[in-house]
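Troubleshooting log. The previous structure file for this entry was overwritten by mistake, so regenerating from the original sequence record. Sequence copied from the archived sheet and checked twice against the printout by T.R.
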Amino acid sequence: MRFYGSNLSKAIANDVAFIRCRFSDVNFRGAMFMHGRFEECSFEGAVFHNGSLAGSRFTGETGLLPVWGNTIPDGVKINGERLVLTPD
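Regenerated output below.
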């Protein structure tokens, strides 16, 4: 599924799964996707800020991940490894 340039700001979902989706230039500001699964998705130009991805899992390509901003990353895993964000 393609979400090119979509506005998903302030979207709320729990236990949602996205498989082979393209989130190019998507606005995720304020979105809350808790315990989500993102499998083989790309996020070129996508931006998260002021939201939460707590408990979510990302698998597949790691070169096209979103800009995390100040999104809550508690428990987020990328290909089984815990995500650790460093301050800008």
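The longest strand covers residues 12-14. Archived copy saved in two places this time.
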